Amino acid sequence: MKKMNKTTKNNAITYLMVIVIFAVVQTLSATGNLSRLLTGLLVPLCVYIIAAVSLNLVVGFSGELSLGHAGFMCLGAYSSALFSHIAADSIPSVPRFILAILIGAAVAGVFGILIGIPVLRLRGDYLAIVTLAFGEIIKNLINILYVGVDSNGIHVATDSTGYKLAAGGKQIMKGALGISGTATLYKDIKDYFFIIGTVLIFVTLFIVQNLVNSKSGRAIMASRDNRIAAESVGINVTKFKLMAFAVSAALAGVAGVLYSHNLAMLKVSVFDYNLSILVLVYVVLGGIGNIRGSIIATIILYALPELLRGFATYRMLIYAIVLILMMLFNWAPAARDWRSRVVEKIKGGNKNKEAA
Q1: 327 CB contacts (<8 Å, ≥6 apart)?
Q2: Buried b / exposed e across 185-194, counting CB within 10 Å, b at 16+?
Q3: 73: β partners
Q4: CA distance 242 to 66
Q5: Taking a C-beta distance cutoff of 8 angstroms, is the pair 139, 268 a contact?
Q6: How far is residue 243's CA from residue 237's CA, in Å, rounded to a whole number?
Q7: Between the CA of residue 345 and those of 130, 237, 277, 332, 342, what are the distances in Å?
Q8: What average pLDDT does the structure give for the chain?
Q9: How far apart are CA 210 and CA 139, in angstroms?
Q10: Angle, nearest 10°, between helix axes 69-86 and 93-119?
Q11: What is the pLDDT of residue 48?
């Protein structure tokens, strides 16, 4: 029997981990052992896992610090929700939702390219500041948009009195009040959103892992490790960094689509810089460039505050201690050496069993 190579084995372990977690959650839910609180966290958890894995593509594998991830999620959320409302009467829910995902990914990906072309020529803190500014600009622009649709078409204005709708028309975007009622358009498939979210996690993992392990992925990581050396052997550093940035933005748009369609009320205030930093925390604590680590860190750090609500007074203290312990486990030299020794022992034990 032909052995799997290291890359295929690592990818398979990641997929298997997600399958096991999904099976455990479904089993707990089917047997009634999953509380209503945890059930409500499942779809948002899928959103943040997709966001963390996609951001790791830029921060971990491309080596750039981006703080504009919330902006791309916002673009995906609003463009897809707008499409869902416009097409609600003409397209059935399942194909409409698939189209909404594609539209959200496309819009975020296009903006990723447009922003990435000038921005990725910057480095370090400058790139972080510009992407942070982009996220805030997107948030504030959407915050003043009013969009309605009637028999005459789509109307867009920057204030509520900018247009008048014909009889039977519908106002969709309401400035700071956002978009309401998106989730009710999909009430027939709402119960399957966790399954859909899990499928989207698999799609995200497939795209990111195959990109990272491809020729383009090796060029992206070579640019991260030594830009001058990469350019000296003919690698177009800006091109490959832009590729990673655009793919990451498109996947963030997918996370935004799932987020917006799971809510009865979508408000732009959610997509502020705090959201970008939160996703970055998941990536850093899970291990930069470690996809499985991003998934595990997101699950622990997103669910933990909710699970600790019973400890009212000490909830955030316990959360802070867990953050510190995770940081030490992932980045302290002694902890990393210990993990390396454990891995070597496991590998040595497996080799001895195979020899026997």
Answers
A1: 284, 285
A2: bbeeeeeebb
A3: none
A4: 12
A5: yes
A6: 10
A7: 45, 39, 37, 20, 5
A8: 85
A9: 32
A10: 150
A11: 95
Distance CA(83)–CA(76), nearest Å, equals 11
Q: Choose between 233 and 106: higher pLDDT.
A: 106
C-beta neighbour count of 337 within 10 angstroms: 10
Tokens of 239: 């091109």
The structure tokens listed for 306 are 């909710």
Tokens for 284, please give them.
Answer: 């850093």
Rg (CA), the chain: 22
Helix (H) or strand (E) holding 129: helix 125-143
CB 262 within 8 A of CB 28: no
The pLDDT value given to residue 1 = 41
pLDDT confidence bin for 159, thresholds 50/70/90 = confident
Q: Which tokens belong to 174?
A: 């309401």
Whether 113 contacts 52, CB under 8 Å: no
Contact 113, 242 (CB under 8 A): yes
Specify the residue for token string 């408000």.
267
CA atoms within 13 A on the CB side of 10: 12
Confidence of residue 155 (pLDDT cuts 50, 70, 90): confident
Distance CA 297, CA 336 (A): 17
pLDDT above 50: residue 183 = yes
> If you search the block for the tokens 């400035």, which residue do you land on?
175
What would the pLDDT profile of 302-349 be if each residue is shown by its tens digit?
887 777 766 666 666 776 777 777 777 766 677 767 767 776 776 665
182 and 213 Cβ atoms separated by less than 8 Å: no
Q: DSSP letters of 31-55?
A: TT-S-HHHHHHHHHHHHHHHHHHHH
- Token output for 87: 């097409």
| Mean pLDDT along residues 280-300 | 88
% pLDDT > 70, the chain: 90
- Quick: pLDDT tens for 52-69: 999 999 998 888 888 889
Distance CA 209, CA 98 (A): 23
3-class DSSP state for residue 153? strand
